[in-house]
TrEMBL record:
Residues 1-23 form the signal peptide. This is FG-GAP repeat protein. Keywords: Signal. Residues 167-257, 264-353 form the Fibronectin type-III domain.
Length: 1065
């Protein structure tokens, strides 16, 4: 099945029944069905489908089960009644081919959401308000002589219209020219109702791409190439703009079958591999006119043709952040040779991710057992770093602390000042930091609660503290908080009504208000409207704030953006006209630094899934390192039907657009309707650059589509190394469509391959993944059965084995109590007050019940039954997470930190790439907990090292001795790396074991003192490495290979350099 167009329109009750005007072609078949109750009137020209009419082969249509029905008695015979059920199918026997399908769904007295599947594929949801009707029109292909339509959620269906679409026949070759200017001429039988024809071509086993259009029944293709095989197909487009199925496929070979093909190229080998290019060559082939070069990311393919060249050598200008694989074919008049042997090339570039410079953020917390002091381990710390802890200037640990980053002072003093000193080889290493003691395991951050107001219809509203994010706004290495204030009349997009204005505040942790931004009356309040991002996008050491704005937005300095008097709200309080802006604000002052038009724009409201303004205003946003080195931001619109993502940079005080993905682009139809109420970001294909996981689909770092699972929209998902026993990352996701083959499933984050899943037959609204059971390696994953707070559902291991029907809450997971399993962050919900009180608990896997660890009395959770905290993040201290809830009266944000020691030591989670970006997007849409890029749980291996920088990396000069290695290298057992720093940096500020030699992606460590000695003199350092390590890392290669040295200075600055080394005999 495939979908060519998706159009949703809205009709009021008073409209007349639909009529079909047939095109001139007598071959066009059509069916019109009026769904409803047995005794209801049937519209003229329609066929009745009652709620009890089951399919049989004689009739050739019907339902697969009996449903309910309702008749509202309105004048329109199609729309007055409907069938409805949460999960049923309508079957229609038809000849194989393409069909335009229109489905009408709505209710005269109630709102409606009907999910639709055609031929097993989710094509979207029809949404309508009470008294209105939605219409979904799309094209589907039938391959088994039966059209199957699946309906879910509310499941109301008023009518269905099916129109057959004729396609061209008799596609044939008229002429073929091989040399000197290759071309082919094709023709086909004309279609009477065609306005024009689209010509599609596929090379080899690739998919079809449109190469041209014509109004004639013939076409000349002058872009063919010698030696290749092409497949052609033609479609027709009728006067309604509907494109037909493709014609018969015509294969044309661009070679002379009477001549032999050239032999395969021999002797392919690597010549040079650098950070910017790969060069290789092969032996010339007799009778070769050209050579075609092919590249793949996998040794077994698929291989993509990337170039044609007349010489027996090739240069591929790219950044080799992964291993690439090449094949070469010779081209002659007799066709294409067999491929050469496959050439593997080395990884020669490792992107250095630029992240914020943060302090150790030590904290001291009064607990029942003493004062718990904890601090951060930083990514730039040498592996042998240790710490001493001082109370009021006196050291209190007996020996340097090497295995953890916390210390319990059982004789602690709540009035004391605690100091943490980092130690390397007995000397102070880096900055010394101090802290005072929290009297409780929480800190209140006082807020400046805004005054409420009155909407134009006279409704009063107040404000509550809502979602928050953190960033270093002033460049001091500590986080500040950016908080969104939510008015009490904020709305879900499906609800009509005015809302109060959305406010963004920035606070120091002592409660000092840095600024307040008022987004103005032309930004509606609600979970899906304002998705703000806090991140240092330009690398100046201070975070910016990015948000969608409008005429009347007031920045943190009081300056108004656009027209201060504009008011685009309609009578329902929606904003469906007027300009939309995107603004970057200065994080320290709130000043608007730059404003541009918001892309993706709303355009035609009806293009997004309804016409009343619900789905057009579904926004998402995130931060991504699209080049692997510097952060960009993603602004997105739509996920129920049309889906658009746009990538931006903020550099040199300018907003620049990088790329745009639109599911309305021809060929991208399978990406419509796949988005979630949130997104995730991470390097899922291990190329050093981030991809965007947008629900059931993924978008590559360059804006190109990666995959769509086709399972449609969902309310929750989780990205990380959920199953460490398989390579790569995974996504656990729940799905809304009751007809989906999986209500929840886990899939490969890079390919979309479904690893396991469970069919639920319902809208599965909540799901979570976390390691909560140490008996099983990997994250457990679970989803609710029924209501959001259901204690039953399905609890599974990472590989899908079911553990139990009993489940913990499916809300947030948090690392809290100090062991490697994760705890559950939730709330105690009061339906009567419609608020929740935050909790943290632990899953007792033996008795399958929750054990409470914390109830945050005096606080409320956010977003109704969602029960989100304002923020969960590793804000202070060691790697465990803090959680922020608002106080009951929103007079403060209360930050809780763990009172438990831990024996484990990890780099702060805020320097893990996936986790840090998870904090940036946590406030977006339906909030989800952050996860890490590595498996953090019971039975975990040591996390792998990931390079990063917190300043502009320092370029050093690297010389290698020897600079040539053989694959045996019997003459040398040591490789010495001479690193020369700029004149203002001395070599003794570098710890040798913080230096990494990167060879083909392998991280080689220096020799320890038993095997080699590090020599430091002036601004140079000579570091020994084991030669065998280098030989093993480069064993598959010959030629000149660029290798990288990377390390950190005592101040945490990153340095790097490269050198070429010749590999081979």
């Amino acid at each position: 099945m495939y979908s060519r167009t998706l159009v949703i329109t809205l009709f009021l009750i008073a409209m007349l029944p639909i009529r079909i005007t047939h095109a001139a072609s007598t071959s066009t078949q059509s069916w019109m069905f009026d769904f409803g109750c047995d005794n209801s009137p049937v519209a003229e020209g329609y066929i009745q489908v009652s709620n009890t009419m089951l399919y049989d082969t004689t009739r050739g249509y019907g339902l697969d089960r009996e449903t309910s029905c309702r008749d509202r008695g309105t004048p329109d015979p199609v729309r007055r009644d409907f069938t409805n059920s949460s999960n049923y199918n309508f079957l229609l026997d038809v000849p194989n081919g393409d069909y335009q399908v229109t489905i009408i769904a709505g209710d005269a007295i109630a709102s409606n959401n009907t999910s639709v599947m055609l031929e097993g594929q989710n094509v979207g949801t029809i949404s309508s308000r009470s008294g209105s009707f939605g219409e979904l029109t799309t094209v589907t292909r039938v391959m088994d002589t039966q059209l199957t339509m699946g309906f879910g959620r509310d499941g109301r269906v008023n009518g269905v219209i099916v129109i057959a679409i004729p396609y061209p026949t008799g596609l044939r070759l008229e002429d073929r020219v091989l040399i000197p200017d290759p071309s082919v001429t094709i023709s086909w039988n004309p279609v009477e109702e065609a306005i024009n024809y689209n010509i599609y071509r596929a090379e080899g086993n690739d998919g079809f791409e449109r190469i041209g259009s014509t109004t004639k029944s013939s076409y000349v293709d002058t872009t063919v190439e010698l030696g290749l095989s092409y497949r052609y197909a033609v479609t027709q487009v009728n006067s309604r703009g509907i494109e037909s199925a493709k014609s018969n496929v015509l294969t044309i070979n661009m070679w002379d079958e009477s001549h032999p093909a050239p032999r395969a190229p021999q002797g392919i080998e690597l010549d040079t591999a650098t950070r910017d290019a790969l060069e290789f060559s092969w032996n010339p082939v007799d009778d070769a006119i050209l050579y075609y070069v092919y590249r793949s990311k996998n040794p077994t393919g698929p291989f993509e043709r990337i170039g044609a060249i007349s010489e027996a050598q090739y240069r591929d200008n790219l950044n080799p952040t992964i291993n690439y694989y090449y094949q070469v074919r010779a081209v002659g008049i007799g066709g294409l040779s067999l491929p050469s042997e496959t050439l593997k090339t080395p990884i020669t570039k490792t992107p250095i991710r630029r992240m914020e410079k943060i302090s150790r953020a030590p904290i001291a917390v009064h607990t029942d057992n003493g004062i718990l002091v904890s601090w951060r381990l930083l990514a730039s710390d040498p592996p042998n770093i240790a710490f001493d802890v001082y109370r009021n200037g006196h050291k209190i640990n007996k020996s340097p602390i090497r295995d953890r980053t916390n210390y319990l002072d059982r004789s602690g003093d709540t009035e004391a000042v605690y100091t943490v000193k980092p130690i390397v080889r007995g000397h102070i290493w880096g900055k010394i930091e101090s802290t005072t003691v929290w009297e409780k395991n929480y800190l209140d951050v006082p807020l400046h609660k805004p005054q409420g107001g009155v909407t134009p219809d006279g409704v009063e509203y107040t404000y509550s503290a809502n979602d928050a994010s953190v960033g270093d706004l002033d460049g001091d290495g500590d986080y500040e908080i950016v908080l969104k204030w939510d008015p009490s009349n904020s709305k879900d997009n499906s609800q009509a009504g005015y809302t109060g204005e959305v406010l963004l505040d920035a606070y120091e942790l002592d409660g000092s208000l840095l600024w307040r931004i008022n987004l103005g009356k032309n930004i509606r309040a609600g979970a899906h409207y304002t998705q703000f991002l806090v991140y240092d996008f330009d690398g100046d050491g201070k975070a910016e704030v990015v948000a969608k704005t409008a005429d009347g937005t007031i920045d943190g300095t009081g300056r108004v953006i656009g027209d201060p008097n504009a008011d685009y709200r309609n009578s329902e309080g929606r904003i469906l006209e007027g300009p939309e802006y995107l603004t970057v604000f200065d994080g320290l002052t709130g000043r608007a630094l730059a404003t541009t038009n918001y892309d993706p724009p709303r355009g035609n409201v009806c293009d997004w899934g309804d016409c009343y303004g619900n789905r057009v205003d579904r926004f998402l946003a995130g931060v991504a390192y699209l080049d692997g080195q510097n952060p960009s931001f993603i602004m997105a619109r739509g996920y129920y039907t049309r889906t658009v993502l746009v990538a931006y940079n903020w550099r040199d005080n300018k907003i620049t657009k990088l790329w745009k993905f639109d599911s309305a682009t021809p060929g991208y139809e399978s990406y419509a309707g796949q988005g979630n109420h949130q997104l995730s970001v991470g390097d899922v294909d291990n190329d050093g650059r981030d991809e965007i996981i947008y629900g059931s689909m993924a978008i590559d770092d360059d804006g190109s589509p990666m995959y769509s699972t086709g399972l449609g929209h969902g309310d929750a998902m989780h990205l990380g190394d959920l199953d460490p026993q398989r390579p790569g990352l995974e996504v656990f996701q729940v799905h809304e469509n009751a007809n989906s083959p999986y209500g929840y499933e886990m899939h490969d984050a890079a390919t979309g391959e479904i690893l396991w899943g469970v069919r639920t037959g319902i809208d599965t609204g909540r799901g979570l993944a976390a390691d909560i059971d140490p008996r099983y390696i990997g994250y457990e994953a679970w989803a609710v059965k029924g209501e959001w707070n259901s204690p039953t559902g399905g609890l599974h291991t990472a590989n899908g084995d079911k553990i139990s029907d009993n489940i913990p809450p499916a809300n947030f997971a948090i690392w809290w109590d100090g062991d490697l399993t994760r705890e559950i962050l939730d709330h105690n919900w009061s339906q009567e007050q419609y608020v929740g009180v935050g909790t943290i608990g632990k899953w007792d896997y033996e008795h399958e019940k929750m054990v409470n660890l914390l109830t945050a009395h005096g606080t409320y959770s956010n977003n109704g039954t969602k029960g989100n905290p304002s923020l969960q993040a590793d804000i202070f201290g060691d790697w465990r997470e803090e959680v922020i809830w608002r106080t009951e009266d929103s007079s403060a944000l209360r930050i809780y930190t763990t009172p438990y020691p831990t024996e484990y030591r990890f780099v702060t989670l805020m320097q893990d790439p996936i986790y840090r970006l998870g904090i940036a997007w946590q406030n977006v849409g339906y909030n989800q907990p952050p996860h890490t890029s590595f498996y953090l749980g019971s039975g975990m291996p040591k996390p792998s090292w990931k390079p990063l920088s917190t300043d502009e990396p320092i370029k050093v000069k690297l010389d290698l001795y020897p600079n040539r290695i053989t694959h045996t290298n019997e003459k040398h057992n040591t490789l010495r790396a001479l690193i020369r720093f700029p004149a203002d940096i001395q070599g003794d500020v570098v710890a040798a074991n913080s230096i990494h030699l990167l060879v083909d992606g392998d991280d080689l460590s220096p020799k320890n003192s038993r095997f080699g000695k590090v020599i430091s003199k002036g601004n140079a350092i000579l570091v020994p490495f084991r030669m065998n390590d280098l030989v093993n890392a480069a064993a598959e290669y010959t030629g000149k290979v660029e290798i990288t040295i990377l390390g950190y200075t005592q101040e945490g600055k990153t340095f790097w350099g490269t050198a070429l080394i010749r590999v081979g005999e």
